[in-house]
Amino acid sequence: MGFSPLLIAERIGDTVDMVNNVYGHLYPNRHIEVVEKLQEIVSYSYHAQKQNRKIPVIK
After folding, report:
1. Domain of 13?
2. Closest Cα partner for 5 from 27, 36, 38?
3. pTM for the whole structure
4. How many CA within 13 A on the CB side of residue 14?
5. Cys bridge to 14: 8, 18, 39, 59, which one at CB 3.0-4.6 A?
């Protein structure tokens, strides 16, 4: 659905930990997306450092 756990927790009046523990199993692909994004960032940083390029800050 694309909503953050924080937004859901605020809406239902509970904690982010509770939302992740109770509903996290419903979105197993999100774990894969996080791993892929982190790998992309690490790979880019590694190659940028090898080429002495400035690494952009991700917000």
Report:
1. 5-50
2. 27
3. 0.45
4. 11
5. 18
